[in-house]
């Protein structure tokens, strides 16, 4: 009997890869007869610690095969902008992916191809081979409402988003100010803008969408998508909410890790955790404001600090480089706060920390994976968006889902020490903090129920996989 395969094609960044791998694990757990192949393209940009992660998954889940595509030299005139690379490299790889899919289909039956939205160029390949093609949207239902509505915004406006200064009334979500849209969308004539529009149009022609959320978390957005109100000029394909798809925190030894050992010594729900994702790098001035605000707040804290960018414009600086905390934080800060705080460099085991009994709050960049980890762990957030779609996520998390507090920042994103002090204190001790804590604890229970037998995400998964297995 020929084997059945599902092909996953993530964007290579760690944030996109992890949730796609979790989807692969879900498929294999419930349908061991389906083999999962994940296509990996070499990326000419920083992807986070993907090699180590892939090796770990390969060792622990041998049923998932990572198929590494060969390196291709980029044309000399290829844009070095991150979004242009993220969309453009899959396009360069189309001939390779075409041949790979043909080779796989000669020995096996390909039941589905699941694309990250950055892998959009491959839609034409899978369509030409008549393969059922789905899009995996790594964010939630609210984000998907906004993404699918982009072609409508494009048709009903004539200026670049940068020049609009209006609120978009997108079905299913609160009004979104034009300045909160991702910066790669700002210029109507840019490649990145055109790629987002093209992707949204292709998604409308696909076999369906998969989103990393669960229906109880984003009820209004989920219903709006199911009712087909975000795509205004045609039918909406089926939508499946399979989340939360997040990595577990079990890979870290609590007796070995510095953060977890320190947390063991702290009172229940007393620590605010500050962590800003794999690309969350602040300048020295901002780090100093955070430090002053934390110290003044009087709260216990665990803070992950990455190497700030160099003041010299010509010198590249990576958030992961070696540096001394004393060189970038206020003089005496570490000594004065050592009884209440712990500052670690570059990395901390975030899922394990968020699920720790001592953690009572999370200052986050509003990346969707981090937000879901907080929801599952029942830890309320302060929303501090930095890049990509995070300003939009802040609106959903604060105004719609009500699991985070808004943080006052200047137009260029700078946050003063007073704002850090007040918002952290409000989160941990204030009335608004209590309200978001109660809300997120309720959502935590619902998140766990969604993925159990009979839960909303499990039901959606069985509907999705029915056509692949005939069961």
What's this entry about, in short?
Helices cover 42% and strands 15% of the residues.
Model description:
The chain has 471 residues and is an alpha/beta fold. The protein folds into two domains: 3-247 and 451-465, Glycogen Phosphorylase B (Rossmann fold), CATH 3.40.50; 258-447, Glycogen Phosphorylase B (Rossmann fold). Helices cover 42% and strands 15% of the residues. Strands 3-2-1-4-5-8-9 form a seven-stranded parallel sheet, sandwiched between helices. It has a six-stranded parallel sheet with strand order 12-11-10-13-14-15, sandwiched between helices. A two-stranded antiparallel sheet has the order 6-7. Strand 13 (359-364), helix 15 and strand 14 (381-383) form a beta-alpha-beta unit. Helix 11 crosses helix 17 (417-429), helix 15 crosses helix 18 and helix 17 (417-429) crosses helix 18. It is globular, with a radius of gyration of 22 Å.
């Amino acid at each position: 009997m020929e084997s059945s395969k599902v092909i996953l094609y993530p964007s290579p960044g760690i944030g996109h890869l992890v949730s796609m791998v979790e989807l692969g694990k879900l498929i294999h757990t419930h349908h061991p007869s389906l083999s999962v192949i994940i296509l990996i393209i070499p990326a000419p940009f920083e992807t986070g610690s993907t090699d180590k992660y892939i090796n770990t998954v390969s060792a622990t889940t041998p049923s998932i095969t990572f198929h590494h595509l060969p390196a291709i030299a980029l044309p000399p005139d290829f844009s070095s902008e991150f979004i242009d690379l993220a969309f453009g490299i899959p396009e360069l790889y189309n001939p390779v992916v075409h041949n790979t899919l043909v080779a796989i289909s000669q020995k096996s039956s390909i039941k589905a191809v699941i694309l990250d939205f950055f892998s959009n160029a491959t839609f034409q390949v899978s369509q030409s081979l008549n393969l059922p093609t789905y899009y995996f949207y790594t964010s939630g239902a609210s984000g998907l409402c906004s993404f699918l509505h982009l072609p409508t915004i494009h048709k009903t406006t004539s200026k670049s988003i940068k020049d609009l200064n209006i609120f978009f009334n997108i079905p299913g979500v609160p009004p979104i100010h034009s300045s909160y849209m991702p910066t790669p969308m700002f210029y109507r004539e840019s490649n990145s803008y055109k790629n987002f529009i093209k992707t949204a149009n292709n998604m409308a022609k696909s076999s369906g969408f998969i989103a990393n959320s669960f229906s109880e978390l984003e009820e209004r957005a989920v219903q709006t998508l199911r009712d087909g109100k975000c795509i205004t000029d045609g039918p909406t394909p089926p939508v499946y909410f399979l989340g939360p798809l997040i990595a577990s925190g079990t890979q870290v030894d609590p007796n070995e890790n510095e953060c977890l050992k320190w947390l063991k010594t702290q009172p229940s729900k007393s620590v605010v955790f500050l962590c800003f994702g794999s690309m969350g790098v602040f300048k020295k001035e901002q780090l100093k404001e955070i430090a002053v605000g934390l110290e003044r707040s009087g709260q216990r804290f665990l803070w992950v600090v990455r190497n700030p960018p160099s003041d010299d414009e010509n010198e590249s600086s990576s958030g992961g480089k070696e540096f001394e905390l004393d060189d970038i934080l206020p003089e005496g800060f570490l000594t004065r706060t050592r009884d209440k705080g712990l500052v670690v460099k570059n990395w901390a085991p975030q899922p394990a920390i968020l699920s720790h009994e001592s953690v009572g709050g999370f200052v986050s960049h509003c990346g969707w994976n981090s937000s879901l980890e907080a929801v599952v762990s029942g830890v309320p957030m302060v929303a501090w968006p930095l890049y990509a779609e995070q300003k939009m996520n802040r609106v959903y998390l604060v105004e719609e889902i009500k699991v985070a507090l808004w943080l006052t920042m200047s137009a260029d994103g700078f946050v003063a020490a007073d704002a850090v002090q007040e918002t952290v204190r409000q989160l941990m001790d204030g009335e608004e903090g209590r309200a978001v804590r109660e809300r997120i604890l309720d959502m935590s229970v619902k998140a766990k129920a969604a993925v159990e037998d009979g839960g909303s995400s499990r039901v959606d998964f069985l509907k999705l996989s029915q056509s692949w297995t005939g069961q």
